[in-house]
Amino acid sequence: MMTTVVQLSDLHVRAPNDPLCGRIDTGAYLSRAVSSIQALPLAPDAVVITGDLVDLGRPEEYRQLRGLLAPLTSPLFLLAGNHDEVQALRAAFPDHPHLGTTGDLRYCAAVGGLLLIALDTTVPRQAHGALDAQRLDWLARALDAARDQPVLLAMHHPPFRTFIDHMDAMGLLQGAAELDALLRAHANVERVICGHVHRPIETRFGGTIASICPSPAHQIEMNLRPDAPPAWTLEPGGFTVHAWTRDTGLVSHLAYAGKFDGPYAFDDDG
Ligand SMILES: [Fe+2]
């Protein structure tokens, strides 16, 4: 039996008529991605959004977000990023009991044959992320309880260096080494899925693979020079489709959001 999980990240939804940087209609980009997800031939078992759901953390942005996500028919799992205000997020999604009511936004949820563990890396009013002892202890207990269940660990800040230095400077600045050691002790972690850097990036981490999902809207410029200035581009946005079976483990596909020419059958010569 296959389990498929769509990962979206870094939506940065704004209030209506208030485009990001005066020109990026992040809501329109999200709508396009939602349409692409709804058009997938195989409906996903879940849609996981790894943070920066909105841009300024305002209640009206979360109301807008809720409306834009409404066409999704798969179960929805939300995480907070550094642009989110967790209490405003919770207030807009009162029918999502896994979001909790206070403290860190973290939870475990069964998704098909996978256990989704959502870990909060945010630090209030800071761009960078951190895993303190309390967060790591919670994760250790969750992983111990999962035993040999395959785990998808979701978090906003990636626990590895991307070489986009201006983003790494606001990366996971505390707890990455401890997380690496913890994951090495749990061979059942299939993948660490992250956001924050608005590009598809992957590396070996903690004895597993850690990956970053693009934004459906703006991407961070592909510039690995150490003096790269912070900059965004409007390269094609997208999402990731993670497919799992017990025999194969997790296989991940980058998908672009939007309507494109095709598909055409292989034997259709027009
Ligand atoms: Fe972001």
UniProtKB/TrEMBL annotation:
Keyword terms, alphabetized: Hydrolase, Iron, Metal-binding
InterPro entries: Calcineurin-like_PHP, CNP_phosphodiesterase-III, GpdQ/CpdA-like, GpdQ_beta-strand, GpdQ_catalytic, Metallo-depent_PP-like
Pfam families recorded: Metallophos
Tagged with keyword Iron: yes
Domain of life of the native organism: Bacteria
Domain Calcineurin-like phosphoesterase: 4-200
Family, as annotated: Belongs to the cyclic nucleotide phosphodiesterase class-III family.
Protein name: Metallophosphatase
